[in-house]
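Long-time lurker. I teach an intro course on protein structure, and each term I like to show students one example going from raw sequence to a predicted 3D structure in token notation. This year I'd like something fresh instead of my usual example. Would anyone be willing to generate the tokens for the chain below so I can use it in lecture? Attribution to the forum is fine with me.
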Amino acid sequence: MPSPHRTSRLLPVLLLSALGLGVLPGSVAAADSTGNPGYVSDLVLNSSKSDRYAEYQGSVLLAEGDTVAALKREYRWGGTTCSGYLPTEDQIRYLFEAMRSGRALQIVPSYKAGVAGARCLVALKVRLRPSPL
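-- Reply from a regular --
Happy to contribute to a lecture. Here you go:
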């Protein structure tokens, strides 16, 4: 068993290591949040010539439900709103295919908080529409 003096010298080293690895309780707040499953209603891809490009490079609008009146929620990426969050080309292609499929494919988004309450898309799950019970 280590002496109390030696343990007290190790504590700052362990604490600094934990800070560097992001395992302290404060880092839990940065975890991905999961949005409600939905269907792609709109897909926006702003080019560098767009007036909106500096604000955000793209977004997906998801209809969260099976009715026409379903709540629609936007998830953005890039620009000043969601700096550093960019989907891959494959992820954009999956979003496009989900939009083309109508309501056959469902998206479950994961996001982090962006500027002014924006939801910044960081990951997505694509799945077949769940069958009704």
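Some talking points for your students: The chain is about 25% helix and 30% strand. The CA atoms of residues 37 and 116 lie 23 Å apart.
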